[in-house]
């Protein structure tokens, strides 16, 4: 048992050092003049447009279910008129960014990990290095920046659909005009509700892209390592999102909401 713990600890520090080295390689290539804009735009399309449908559906269902689940409890206190406010604040501050980012982690991080892992196993990455190309800049930098740019936009669309889902939900259980619903939804929202959530989604997007690329680039030889890279990318990205969110909530509570 002690040897297993020692081996796990050593593996943790090795992975941490490898991740730091990979981040250094990413940082060195991010501001180079010969940036692959075409590949960046293609990755924005793959990460953003290809994920838009599931994000919109998730956002709508999120607002719809949250409204229906909240109405019975608030009705007991005669406070059902506060449902739009509660749903709006919950979605903007916390639920929308986290749930949407977890969905993106499952779809985007797994795709990046599997794609780059397959390229690593079939020695396409090595072939790029031999031919004089820069695989870190072409494969990693473009994907990480695309995720960093697109995930906040996907969260924005998800939040909009959550408002529409909440409007649909409140009219299933009762009746409220669109003007009244959206006026109540935005009445108690302030600028400080949007800024921390937006900054948080940038960190979420970066972690999704970085972890997906890191796991793909470090896939070992063998076809089964591709599946392992994809699976570990999803798990690590989801864990990182939860950790980043916990830290962001603490920082926000200390400096903004107090």
Give a verbal description of the structure.
The protein has 258 residues and is mainly α. Helices cover 87% and strands 0% of the residues. The chain has one domain (35-257). The protein has helices at residues 2-29, 37-76, 83-121, 124-130, 135-173, 178-187, 191-217, 224-257. The radius of gyration is 21 Å and the shape is elongated.
Write the topology of this structure.
Layout lengths: L1 H28 L7 H40 L6 H39 L2 H7 L4 H39 L4 H10 L3 H27 L6 H34 L1
Helix pairs in contact: 2-3, 2-5, 3-5, 3-6, 3-7, 3-8, 5-7, 7-8
Descriptors for this entry?
mainly alpha; single chain; 258 residues; 0% strand; elongated
- What is the β-strand count? 0
Terminal Cα separation, in Å? 46 Å
What characteristic shape results from the CA principal axes? Answer: elongated
Q: List the uncertain runs.
A: none
SSE sequence, one letter per element: HHHHHHHH
Q: Approximately what portion of the residues adopt beta-strand conformation?
A: under 5%
The residue-averaged pLDDT reads 86
Q: Number of domains in the coordinates?
A: 1
